[in-house]
Design brief:
This is FAD-binding domain-containing protein. The chain is of the alpha/beta class and 371 residues long. The chain has two domains: 196 residues, FAD/NAD(P)-binding domain (3-Layer(bba) Sandwich), CATH 3.50.50; 124 residues, D-Amino Acid Oxidase, Chain A, domain 2 (2-Layer Sandwich), CATH 3.30.9.30. It contains 13 helices and 18 strands. The strands form four sheets. A seven-stranded mixed beta sheet has the order 5-4-13-14-15-12-16, with helices on both faces. The protein has a six-stranded mixed beta sheet with strand order 7-2-1-11-18-17, sandwiched between helices. Strands 8-9-10 form a three-stranded antiparallel beta sheet.
Amino acid sequence: MRFLISGAGVAGLSTAVNLDADGHDVTIVERAEHLGGNAPPIDIRGDALDVADKMGLLGQIRERRIDMTQRVQFIDRDGTVVAELPVDEINDSPDDIEIARDDITNLLRDRLGSSTELRLGESIAELDDGESGVDVRFSSGTVDRYDLVVGADGMHSAVRRLTFGPERLFLHHLGFYTAMARLPGYHPSDRINPMYSFPGHIVGIMSYNKKTLAFFMFRSSWIDYDYHDLAIKKRILADAFAGHHEWRVPELVDAAVQDTHLYFDSESQIKMPGWHNGRVALVGDAAYCASTLSGRGTSLALTGAWFLAKALREHPGDLGQAWEQYERDQRPHVIRHQATAAPGGELLAPATQDEIDTRNRGLAARPADEE
């Protein structure tokens, strides 16, 4: 079968690797001109570890394990450490693996077979789902027909919009916004990844491998803006942290404003009653974004891609049965992982100074053997 996958993140690449292994002809289109970007390390947890093992990737993932999150420490306005991040409470188990997003992306890209084509700087403009195939017009103007189309194009999925309806029907805002920017001139003097909280906000530095990012999060109701407009995103971020001159806040905000690849988006989840329509299906954040607050989006992408390919393999002549099995297998993982997002926001960006102080005292009082 001929598959078109929109999106070359973990969900799209994993889906392509699995479908290629089953002998399908796969094309991946990615709107960006390159893979990766200003994104923090990701975590692979629970059943996703088993999937990575079945894909033959677990050993290489373990070799690239990092400890960025374990080195996070909460600091006060002067940069003094006041508490440690409770990593044992965040992880599902000691077996969880943190890895740089670029590393997992490159591992998956290297596993693409000869029957898979990756097109960067290309995206889907129109879809026409018919009985015998899906006619696609691309942003470049070219047209083609595919047996099945998989939308793995993230929280703001164009495939979902074209097939299921506008984003507002499925997006549930969690009350936070997150940004990440490159910090090229920063050279850490120790292993600490410092994070400074003030009411409703957190700002910090994340260093791992040879990469350093400035990290921001703040509480806010929904902001209506064009998420493609970089200048607007920079302005929203700068306004959210304006007037704060403690620690290194101005320096980090300036780095974000100067970054031409700034990441900025809402902390939101995608909740849908179903992830398929005709010959089109969704996987990863496009279908069930859990948000970065959950720390489980990559795990959902890996299990979803695996269950999707498995269902198609086991029901080669019955697409309806395949879609139903995919959703039945993946839905429990989605429900469980999406439920972990709310505590993440309360931990990182408490709403009041009293709540920040209570968090810090509680973490500082934890026995050493619990750290």
